[in-house]
Design goal:
48% of the residues lie in helices and 16% in strands. The chain has 252 residues and is α/β, with parallel strands linked by helices. The strands form 2 sheets. A 6-stranded mixed beta sheet has the order 1-2-3-4-6-9, with helices on both faces. Helix 1 links the parallel strand 2 and strand 3. The longest helix has 22 residues. 39% of the residues are buried.
Length: 252
Amino acid sequence: MEPRLLHDVTDSVATVVIHHPGKRNAMTAEMWRALPPLLDTLAADPAVRALVLTGEGGTFCAGADISTLRAEPSAAQALSVLAEEALAAFPKPTVAAVRGHCVGGGAQLAAACDLRFAEEGALFGVTPAKLGIVYPASATRRLVSLVGPGTAKYLLFSGELIDAERALRTGFVDELLPEGELAKRVAEFTRVLVSRSQLTQASAKEFANGRTDRDGYWADQARGSGDTTEGVTAFLERREPRFTWTASGTTS
């Protein structure tokens, strides 16, 4: 099968799979180009309430396909930035499910997700210093916000890989799972995500990502959504809430 992004929607969770197993799921220019419109389609789908990004088989993503960098390095990097920003802006919760190598462009994509769950044995690295590449400012800021300036500089200056335990300790990884338990835990956690209020999730994501000038907008959304009334009523009635606000600002 040609290098591509595969996707599926099951039980309100969209799963996007980086599929290029012949090169440890390295991202080609076409794959970078395909990600933003795919995310737009999934974001507009009211059936989608969360998204999982993962890699085919035993690795997440070994970075950009180096052959594309040799041809047009600046163009390839511009595509990666557009893909990264589209993923970071996805209006619903996103989880990177990481096995094996999560390196270079793979780490860039994982960092753009809201959360990162990894399997023991995973390896992480940010490797532009090995190639003489200027790492994008947006990706650098995102990395610093996750792991702090010290660890970000360690990764960027050296290009060295770190193991999953260190990635967890420094904040790049949110949960570390024993071998064979990653898929089960991600499925369990995304079931929790899709049961919660998208209104709360979407507003919290926007605020956490640094946009704090829309308090009035979110107050209006909360007043018109009915989610607060439903949440309180469900709590008092000791039942699961049925939230209807979607990330497009409509009700389902």
